[in-house]
Write a structure and sequence with these properties.
With 177 residues, this protein is of the alpha+beta class. The protein is built from seven helices and four strands; from the N terminus they run ααβαβααβαβα. The structure holds flavin mononucleotide (FMN).
Length: 177
Amino acid sequence: MSDFMELCLKRQSCRDFSDRRVEREKLTRCVEAARLAPSGCNAQPWSFVVVDDPKVVPEVAKCGQSMGINGFLSKAPAFFIVLEEQANLMPGLAKIVDSRYFVPGDLGAAVVHLCLEAASLDLGTCIIGMYDRPTLRALLSIPAEKNFGGYVAVGYPADAAVRPKVRKPIEQVVRYV
Ligand SMILES: Cc1cc2nc3c(=O)[nH]c(=O)nc-3n(C[C@H](O)[C@H](O)[C@H](O)COP(=O)(O)O)c2cc1C
């Protein structure tokens, strides 16, 4: 099995974090990996807020618990909040390509790079889809016109055991032509 495939299996949603704080260097490495993700026209329509201040972390966790789920976020020692940024397009390209179509895929790619690098550093992550955006916006002073692109809890897993993946069988999702 390739190293990359092993990493894909190791990356799993972590829903129980240990008390250990995450080193800033490791958090920065994750952002570095996210920054290296591909994007349509290389527009790189993203920026990253890394939350590791113990005074702010619990407030960010609460935003991810607004639906009455995700209680485990209370133990997360840090979060990545991904923001959508203006496309960084060459002027000629901007005339012929509407790169807004690519943004959801670009942001997804960045989030996955981030999570895979975290796994390579023995960190656990959990992507959260539903969160209280207005409260998070106010908490992190995010301007009204900026969209959220991702909310990811990160920390050392309390249990590093790798769970079997639950996925559709490959025959169901592939077709060769
Ligand atoms: C957009 C998105 C939103 C998610 N939201 C939640 C969530 O609110 N709570 C949670 O525990 N997991 C959440 N997950 C994690 C998924 O449940 C998980 O990725 C999926 O079950 C596959 O498991 P694995 O990540 O361990 O491989 C989310 C994942 C994505 C991509």
